[in-house]
User: Which sequence fits this backbone?
């Protein structure tokens, strides 16, 4: 049955945003919020990519004086911090924000206003870092700022504070997003989508969210301790007063290592979705994939010490972490096996999203191999702080997360815009990016083995590193060109692309059931799910339930394990308060760089904003307080 | 290409209730999420304390006084006793007892406010400033972290309590009271290990 037009109109009236700027500022539509996150993060990826190109230009000839050492320090610090905190993690969250409700056939996230708050706070973090950069307060100590170098004695001024506070912004945003994503996946699944019938994508997002909740408090704690050392003279990291600088490293890497997997695990979700659809068969080894993701999530918390082999920890500690670090190759390998088996046994076709998957597998395997090499404490002592690490980290981050992300972008682009991207230009971009990337970064392994240290602004001529550096620079330039082609393709297709219809790829999961782009209410009815691939029912109508209100914002809440419908929950409408609250929180964060009083004083406007946020819209009490009867 | 998929209506959800309580409620899970985050924060801060303790040759370092037991003891006793009215409010929320949640929440707001008095003295009787040495810093860290939670929940209780009196109370509000009460229990439970660390770990050595 086709839904009645008057029903759709009513739903649209209930769920659409107010028009114009006010609608822009108050929206709680998960799709708009996610789109904002994605556009902002992609712009930042471009800016940070330009910084990278600038650094590569500097390194293309020995003894180059185009950049000063200070400028080079600022460049890699800004590049690394932006790419990790403002690009990779937020992009993964944004994909969850955009897709999770659609894949559940739900009308919005569990906590719509928290979603808006999360974006505004993230945006505050973006402004903190980049406005500070514009006025020349750029952090210059790399993407992890170890004390004592970042402590009050060696880093006067506010560069280190900006870095630390940018982290606070983005982590609060990420934590808020994670609670939202986890609650949505656990409690808002459609009838029939038991845990056993949950797509791998949702598992990946759920596990990444839970990992975020357990790891990000560590970095918030440690950067707060750093700020306190700098602002109110606490002594956490000052050895002279009984503090310990290695404590910083432990806390930082307790977060920093899982962070890599918080980026990688959602990417495995993208890969699973794409592989399934284009292989036209149910994923081979669904439960193996889920278990692999679960064990990666658990193992990731036991590995942080491998970033600290050079610190001089007890011998047994090093051995243990060497073994544990290598163990993570097992679930990662199993996943790759399942994907390849799906591809090999399906009726597979290879449009652009699938090409990205192939690029991912090839690149990630190389990154994994160099990872297993550095996981060995003995070898790592030789390689740490060389270009080998630069190569490794880009192979896993770009190969393991950014390539799947590009694939996901191409795969879901028609759903988001209603148009197809050009396949031809998509392939050109793919070849340029993957080719340029490998050309640019593979030589860095060799440079590392030859001893070229990372984070140096130049190198002497007689070391014999010129040639490899030039290749690296050329490769980077090719990859960045490819990135521009990719972006141009996305932009042009937005206006000129062929209309895609609701389901251009024959996708397996529920987001393909609704129109492209999806309407404000997402889907007219609540679907009922009978299999892992609900869209693959031979083209028959989807079984669905009505009864969720259409004249007020309402969502279905179901039980955690077997998705039994429990009750209908009111869902919050547009509101300016998340933005106001984010502004109040931002004011406190920024002011607390300068004075500790910002915290007690700044708490008052935050409290006021939260009161406005939760202000009841139900009627006033009719029974007076004193005669209230039970 | 393809249009949107057609639907076959196989049933209705209109007879579902419009609210729930306990773990059936969506917000209950959000509350748990934030407890996980903050609980992790406490665990890590405690780990930092233990780490610094194992690195030091004496704990507290030579010359530092031991933290005072009197006011911290009063605070701890008060906090534990506050669980009695708190659990009573929880019961009222589950039983949808309107007068009970109104007056119980108001009482909890007063009790939390009263606890600030011993907490204030507790800070004063730590015996050393935060900037003295790493020991002082980490003790202050734990105490400030916990105090922030008491203050937050107090603010939440005040606002919630006011609205219970001024606005109609339905099932969702009973669920809010339940969440608020669970959160207070969380604040109480987090205190116990922190208390042992701050006051008894240095004495045990
Ligand atoms: C074509 C794209 C890219 C190029 C050419 C590039 C190039 C570079 C260069 C030259 C450095 C400095 C190495 C050094 O002197 O030690 C660097 C560091 C780094 N890059 Fe990239 N990069 C690119 C993309 C990315 C992406 C997408 C990410 C993350 C998702 C990333 C994350 C990092 C990190 C974390 C560092 C370390 C910063 C530090 O040492 O503190 N890069 N990159
Ligand atoms: Cu690691």
Assistant:
């Amino acid at each position: 049955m086709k839904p009645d037009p008057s029903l759709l109109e009513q739903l649209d009236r209930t769920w659409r945003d107010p028009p114009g700027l006010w609608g822009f500022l108050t929206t709680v539509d998960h799709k708009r919020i996610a789109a904002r996150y994605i556009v902002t993060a992609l712009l930042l990826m471009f800016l940070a990519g330009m910084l990278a190109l600038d650094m590569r230009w500097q390194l293309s000839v020995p003894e180059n004086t185009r950049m000063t050492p200070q400028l080079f320090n600022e460049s890699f610090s800004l590049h690394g911090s932006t790419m990790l905190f403002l690009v990779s993690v937020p992009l993964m969250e944004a994909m969850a924000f955009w897709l999770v409700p659609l894949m559940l056939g739900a009308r919005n996230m569990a906590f719509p206003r928290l979603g808006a708050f999360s974006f505004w706070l993230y945006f505050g973090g973006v402004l903190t870092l980049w406005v500070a950069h514009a006025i020349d307060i750029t952090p210059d100590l790399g993407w992890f700022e170890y004390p004592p170098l970042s402590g009050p004695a060696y880093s006067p001024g506010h560069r280190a504070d900006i870095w630390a506070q940018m982290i606070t912004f983005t982590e609060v945003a990420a934590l808020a997003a994670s609670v939202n994503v986890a609650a949505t996946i656990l409690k808002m699944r459609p009838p029939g989508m038991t845990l056993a019938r949950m797509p791998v994508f949702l598992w990946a997002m759920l596990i990444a969210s839970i990992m975020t909740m357990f790891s990000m408090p560590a970095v918030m704690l440690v950067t707060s301790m750093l700020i306190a050392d700098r602002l109110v003279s606490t002594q956490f990291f000052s050895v002279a007063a009984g503090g310990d600088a290695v404590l910083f490293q432990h806390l930082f890497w307790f977060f920093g290592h899982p962070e890599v997997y918080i980026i990688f695990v959602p990417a495995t979700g993208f890969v699973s979705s794409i592989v399934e659809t284009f292989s036209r068969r149910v994923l081979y080894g669904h439960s193996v994939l889920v278990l692999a993701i679960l064990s990666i999530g658990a193992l990731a918390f036991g590995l942080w010490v491998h970033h600290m082999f050079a610190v001089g920890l007890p011998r047994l500690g090093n051995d243990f972490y060497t073994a544990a670090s290598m163990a993570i190759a097992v679930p990662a390998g199993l996943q790759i096996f399942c994907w390849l088996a799906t591809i090999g046994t399906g009726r597979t076709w290879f449009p652009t999203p699938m090409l990205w998957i192939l690029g991912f597998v090839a690149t990630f395997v190389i990154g994994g191999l160099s990872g297993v090499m550095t996981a060995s404490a003995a070898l790592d002592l030789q390689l740490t702080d060389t270009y080998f690490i630069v190569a490794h980290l880009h192979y896993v981050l770009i190969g393991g997360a950014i390539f799947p992300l590009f694939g996901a972008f191409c795969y879901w682009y028609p759903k988001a815009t209603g148009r197809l991207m050009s396949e031809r230009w998509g392939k050109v971009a793919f070849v340029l990016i993957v080719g340029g990337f490998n050309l640019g970064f593979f030589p860095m392994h060799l440079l590392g083995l030859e001893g070229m240290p990372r984070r140096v602004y130049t190198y002497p001529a007689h070391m014999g590193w010129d040639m490899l550096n030039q290749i690296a620079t050329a490769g980077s330039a090719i990859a960045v060109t490819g990135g521009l082609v990719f972006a141009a393709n996305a932009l042009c297709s937005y206006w000129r692309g062929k209309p895609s219809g609701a389901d251009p790829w024959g996708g397996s999961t529920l987001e393909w059931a609704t129109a492209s782009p999806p309407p404000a209410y997402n889907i007219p009815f609540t679907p009922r799910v009978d299999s892992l691939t609900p869209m693959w029912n031979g083209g028959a109508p989807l079984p669905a339930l009505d009864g969720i209100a259409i004249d007020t914002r309402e969502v279905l809440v179901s039980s955690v394990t077997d998705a039994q419908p429990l009750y209908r929950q009111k869902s919050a409408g547009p509101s300016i308060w998340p933005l106001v609250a984010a502004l109040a929180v931002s004011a406190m964060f920024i002011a607390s760089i300068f004075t500790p009083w910002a915290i007690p004083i700044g708490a008052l406007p935050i409290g006021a904003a939260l009161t406005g946020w939760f202000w009841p819209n139900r009627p006033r009490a009719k029974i007076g307080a004193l005669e209230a009867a039970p | 290409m393809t249009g949107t998929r057609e639907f076959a209506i196989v049933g209705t959800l209109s007879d579902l209730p419009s609210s729930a309580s306990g773990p059936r409620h969506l917000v209950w899970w959000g509350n748990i999420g934030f407890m996980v985050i903050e609980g992790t924060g406490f665990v890590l801060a405690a780990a930092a304390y233990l780490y610094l303790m194992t690195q030091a040759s004496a704990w507290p370092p030579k010359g530092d006084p031991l933290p005072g037991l009197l006011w911290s003891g009063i605070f701890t006793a008060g906090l534990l006793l506050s669980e009695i009215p708190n659990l009573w409010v929880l019961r009222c929320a589950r039983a949808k007892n309107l007068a009970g949640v109104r007056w119980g929440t108001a009482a909890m707001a007063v009790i939390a406010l009263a606890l600030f008095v011993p907490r204030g003295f507790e800070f004063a009787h730590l015996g050393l400033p935060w900037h003295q040495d790493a020991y002082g810093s980490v003790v202050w860290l734990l105490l400030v972290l916990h105090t922030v939670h008491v203050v937050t929940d107090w603010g939440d209780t005040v606002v919630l309590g006011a609205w219970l009196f001024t606005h109609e109370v339905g099932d969702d509000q009973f669920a809010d009271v339940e969440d608020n009460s669970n959160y207070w229990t969380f604040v109480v439970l987090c205190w116990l290990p922190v208390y042992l660390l701050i006051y008894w770990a240095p004495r045990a050595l």
In short: Residues 127 and 394 of chain A are 25 Å apart (CA to CA).
